[in-house]
């Protein structure tokens, strides 16, 4: 497959989908997605915004298209494990979905001891914490080392402007955030999705390091919502070089937004204070990593859509809402 050139990516810097402003009823603006609820359906528009450390940072060329099309691929691939909210994909940046009742818990599955954020397993571990979200971790582990088995570390889903909180499964149930029977089903499904995802990407020379899943209820049926196995919600490492780099104490090759997180951390920013200005060359490299991840995961060449994005979305959704 021929990779998208830097010139095409750079040209898209002048055509970013930073925000939307459609008159389609109730609007909710998340960190990355703009949501419109119309006649019991949810229009989910994935913008080019990128967030890290619970802050919206900037916009990355083609990021929204990559995320939406990657999620659409995985939603289709995992229907045998759990129903999902997708009705159709009418535009490269848009999912038309069932309106579900959100369960305010993110199911985070981790296969490796890693991360740079204050909520990451490695951040806690290197500070001497050995009980992470109810999981007792052994002494002597190294950064980027695999756990003996994947661990589930749920997180509360904060309101806009708030911070998610990593807690134990028992704490989720104790707080009454979700019925225990439903929560145990969410646990089972999350681990099954992670196993399936890791097996599938291993065929494409990738490791699904960790990820998160969100669920909702539609007519009392549990459904997977939001996104799945994208470079935003998941960490991906190159499989064939992992062992050699790990044995030398070096960082793995990454294809996800950890590239941006680590660049920011190198500037001394991990969520508090002024966000450093991210140079265009960093944004272009981030876009390249997102596009590469899409192509490796799906086996499809990324077909860049360079039209005026909002106008294209409006045209593609005519008659659907």
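Q: What amino acid sequence fits the structure above?
A:
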């Amino acid at each position: 497959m021929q990779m998208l050139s830097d010139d095409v990516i750079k040209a898209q810097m002048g055509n970013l989908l930073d925000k939307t402003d459609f008159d389609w009823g109730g609007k909710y603006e998340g960190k990355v997605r703009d949501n419109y609820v119309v006649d019991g359906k949810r229009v989910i528009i994935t913008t080019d915004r990128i967030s890290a450390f619970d802050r919206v940072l900037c916009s990355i060329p083609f990021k929204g298209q990559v995320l939406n099309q990657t999620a659409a691929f995985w939603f289709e691939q995992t229907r045998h494990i759990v129903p999902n909210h997708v009705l159709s994909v009418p535009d490269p940046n848009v999912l038309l979905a069932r309106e579900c009742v959100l369960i305010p818990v993110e199911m985070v599955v981790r296969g490796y001891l890693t991360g740079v954020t204050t909520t990451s397993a490695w951040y806690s571990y290197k500070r001497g914490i050995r009980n992470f979200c109810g999981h007792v971790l052994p002494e002597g582990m190294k950064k980027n080392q695999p756990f003996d088995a994947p661990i589930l570390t749920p997180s509360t889903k904060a309101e806009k402007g708030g911070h998610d909180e990593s807690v134990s499964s028992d704490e989720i149930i104790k707080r009454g955030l979700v019925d225990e029977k439903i929560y145990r089903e969410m646990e089972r499904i999350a681990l099954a999705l992670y196993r399936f995802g890791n097996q599938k990407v291993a065929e494409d020379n990738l490791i699904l390091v960790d990820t998160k899943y969100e669920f909702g209820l539609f007519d009392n049926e549990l459904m997977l919502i939001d996104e799945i196995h994208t470079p935003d919600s998941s960490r991906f490492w190159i499989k064939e070089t992992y062992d050699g780099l790990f044995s030398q104490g070096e960082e793995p090759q990454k294809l996800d937004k950890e590239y941006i997180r680590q660049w920011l951390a190198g500037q001394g920013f991990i969520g508090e204070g002024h966000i450093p200005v991210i140079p265009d060359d960093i944004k272009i490299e981030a876009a390249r990593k997102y596009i590469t991840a899409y192509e490796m995961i799906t086996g499809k060449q990324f077909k860049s859509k360079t039209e005026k994005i909002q106008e294209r979305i409006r045209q593609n959704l005519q008659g659907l809402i």
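Q: And what stands out in the fold?
A: The two ends are 36 Å apart (CA to CA).
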